[in-house]
Amino acid sequence: MSGIPPLKKNDEVYVLQGKDRGKTGRILIVMPQKDRVVVEGVQMIKRHTKPNPQKNVKGGIVEKEASIHISNVALVCKNCKEHTRIAIKVLEDGRRERTCKKCDNAMD
């Protein structure tokens, strides 16, 4: 898809499906090839890690965020404070911007 990606890093999203349904969080990583995002505080997993003194990593059980499919999250509008779908509006000068489907205001 050319132009503006539907979801970007640091966007506030609402989780629609899964064990963390109803939570909101900020996007940390976007993986467009796999259609997945990593959301802060959502889809927490326990990872068993070995100690690595060269990289200054302590061993043990570490909790971190796993990825979630992009279809299971919805963007939270900054204006109306609700989760919504995104519309791409073409401006007069040819630029494209993301807009809220509920309140029709720009998302960026």
Write up this protein:
- The chain has 108 residues and is mainly β.
- It has one domain: SH3 type barrels (Roll), CATH 2.30.30.30.
- It is 0% helix and 44% strand.
- The chain has no helices and 10 strands.
- The protein has strands at residues 12-15, 24-31, 36-39, 44-49, 60-65, 67-69, 73-76, 83-84, 86-90, 96-100.
- The chain has a 6-stranded antiparallel β-sheet, with no helix packed on it. It has a two-stranded antiparallel sheet with strand order 4-5. It has a two-stranded antiparallel sheet with strand order 9-10.
- A hairpin with a 4-residue loop joins strand 2 (24-31) and strand 3 (36-39).
- It starts with 11 loop residues before the first strand and ends in an 8-residue tail after the last strand.
- Name the beta content range: 35-45%
The shape, in one word, is elongated
The total count of helices amounts to 0
CATH architecture label name: Roll
Instruction: Please tell me how large the radius of gyration is.
Output: 17 Å
- CATH structural class: Mainly Beta
Could you give the distance between the termini? Answer: 19 Å
Largest sheet data: 6 strands, antiparallel
Number of individual domains: 1
Q: What sequence of helices (H) and strands (E) makes up the elements?
A: EEEEEEEEEE
Low-confidence runs of at least 5 consecutive residues: none
